[in-house]
DNA sequence: CTGAAAGCGCTTACAG
DNA sequence: CTGAAAGCGCTTACAG
């Protein structure tokens, strides 16, 4: 069963007895009006009947537009990324673009290799979910003059467009909530400082506790090695050691918060009775944990949509300014936060 | 800042003063040996220095190979799919292929539209995670003679290669476990019968209870409208109505199991004390639910890998036979299953 | 309104 | 070993 050769403009033109350029004009809605109604109708009819689909790759070669956008993810298994990807894909689809998705990991040289491949495939732009605060790969993309936008994580220098959630606000909402409940010994388990999310949430935490005029010995920050459950558990253990008075933890994200759950359970501590925990992201099923996780919901799907929109704009007008779109997060109060015990220090 | 035009073979050839076909030969490792060592070295050097990356699209047009594979997902937000996608992507990458990923939903006409687009983009093959037991879209792909493999869900007629988990075995493990614990009134909340997973797990459940010689009034099957938490909750309510003696539920998947959790909690019933629940998939964080979910772990990443391997084989040898690869699942016993109460009916 | 031609950036038989 | 040429399937100025 040999694969039947795909039809071409010429095949179709021969069948209808017109020049293939005429078929081309008809197949493209934008140029369809250039040909006589009846001819167009006949061509369309035959095209439909024979299931003709013009070769977009050949067209792209000619028009210098691939209709491809590269999406570079650090880890698609992390539950933040699928909805972001879905958002990207949905607006791309509306404009006839399609994403090429690669799981690039965290290794910068591998990321660069992948981006080179994508450029070789003529992607018209790139969405990076892998950006760090200082990112050689991002520098590389900029040098290549390829349209780029970062999503979820921002970038320091303002050279590229970014779509992020407001991390300062997130921590302010978190700390306000905790202080409002009566907590006076609050800690933050930060994500990696190399990532804008880790850096800014930490920054936001510090700003927030200062705003509440908490004394320096009433709050504490510790950094987790990564945004993972394991690293969160480890950091939580160190935190309890370093800051035993703690009654509330603002975790860098939900996975880190889960790590806290794991450790507290192991130590026989009750959440929220002994220690309150707040996450960040509101990942799927955060409500199904025990206790249901109080967390900051970020607009993941919108983040993807907006990133795609920004990128498309960048592609349309190459010179346009880089902008940062900051989406507003929302605190979702559930069962992992409560007032501290009366006998809390 | 105009986008610097990308380099071409001709640009490079002009710079080095050789014919561009020579540059072409050097850029492709497979034909590199055709040119003199020193010339090749010089070309490679300049190519590296100038950051030349051959246009894969143009090459693909010439060689009739796009290096693209289409991946059609019903819903990337469903936690089964990201690891499958990761698996697909990883083996594709090894062979220089790249996936085009689209969230196609469940609507068949939209799926077909998307597949048409993908074919227009010259994908060399398709991985469908959207297959139903009788699937018009799959029929369409077969008529187009495009290499296809289905993943996670199988297909009835054996016309295409499938990679699935052994659903009959999964239910046998589940029922064995439940019966072993002493349960004598067991129910299954099945997924949609239109999907192979829903159909076969139901089948497996029935076979398993028969093997244990449970009397017909000692087991019950009810079908959920979809594989979702909400549908699971609804079905669970109906189940309690229809089969009040039930002490153990084999849920169609983990989301359905979560729906059961939701309903049981609402009714003030304890899991596992009043009713045991078993899921299917072992989705991320199934262990972090309360109680931790006993479930069947399927080899998701391997499933993706294997699907990609099968597809690549199909692409290499178009005529080759369709095969079904069945991966072996594993029961993961956690806290949602226990012996029934002594006073259970 | 339609056709004929050039060309997008490659690969690869064919000469030499 | 290297060059010159044809051609992959399109789009689009240019004629007529």
From TrEMBL, chains A, B:
What molecular function terms (GO) are annotated for this protein? DNA-binding transcription factor activity; transcription cis-regulatory region binding
SMART domains cross-referenced by the UniProt entry: HTH_LACI (SM00354)
Residues of the HTH lacI-type domain: 7-63
Q: Which InterPro entries match?
A: HTH_LacI, LacI/GalR-like_sensor, Lambda_DNA-bd_dom_sf, Peripla_BP_I
Pfam families reported in the protein's UniProt record: LacI, Peripla_BP_3
Reply yes or no: does the keyword Transcription apply.
yes
Can you name this protein?
LacI family DNA-binding transcriptional regulator
Q: Which organism is it from?
A: Cupriavidus oxalaticus
């Amino acid at each position: 069963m040999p694969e039947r050769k795909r039809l071409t403009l010429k095949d179709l033109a021969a069948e209808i007895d017109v020049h293939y350029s005429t078929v081309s004009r008809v197949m493209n809605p934008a140029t369809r009006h250039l040909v006589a109604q009846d001819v167009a109708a006949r061509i369309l009819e035959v095209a439909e009947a024979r299931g003709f689909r013009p070769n977009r790759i050949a067209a792209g070669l000619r028009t210098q537009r691939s209709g491809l956008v590269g999406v570079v993810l650090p880890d698609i298994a992390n539950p933040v990324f699928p909805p972001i990807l879905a958002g990207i894909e949905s607006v791309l689809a509306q404009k006839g673009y399609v994403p090429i998705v690669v799981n690039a990991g965290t290794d910068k040289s591998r990321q660069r290799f992948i981006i080179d491949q994508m450029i070789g495939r003529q992607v018209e732009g790139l969405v990076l979910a892998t950006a760090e605060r200082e990112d050689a790969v991002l520098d590389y993309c900029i040098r290549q003059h390829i349209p780029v936008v970062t999503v979820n994580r921002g970038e320091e220098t303002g050279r590229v467009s970014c779509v992020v959630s407001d991390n300062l606000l997130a921590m302010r909402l978190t700390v306000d909530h905790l202080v409002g409940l009566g907590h006076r010994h609050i800690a933050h388990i930060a994500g990696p400082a190399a990532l804008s999310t880790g850096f800014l949430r930490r920054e936001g935490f510090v700003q927030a506790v200062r705003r509440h005029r908490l004394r320096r010995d009433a709050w504490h920050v510790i950094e987790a090695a990564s945004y993972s459950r394991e690293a969160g558990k480890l950091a939580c253990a160190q935190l309890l050691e370093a800051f035993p008075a703690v009654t509330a933890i603002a975790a860098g994200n939900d996975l880190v918060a889960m790590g806290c759950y794991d450790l507290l359970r192991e130590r026989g501590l009750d959440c929220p009775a002994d220690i309150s925990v707040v996450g960040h992201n509101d990942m799927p099923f955060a409500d199904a944990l025990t206790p249901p996780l109080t967390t900051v919901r970020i607009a993941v799907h919108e983040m993807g949509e907006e990133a795609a929109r920004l990128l498309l704009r960048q592609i349309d007008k190459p010179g346009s300014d880089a902008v940062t779109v900051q989406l507003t997060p929302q605190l979702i109060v559930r069962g992992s936060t409560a007032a501290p015990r009366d006998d809390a220090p």
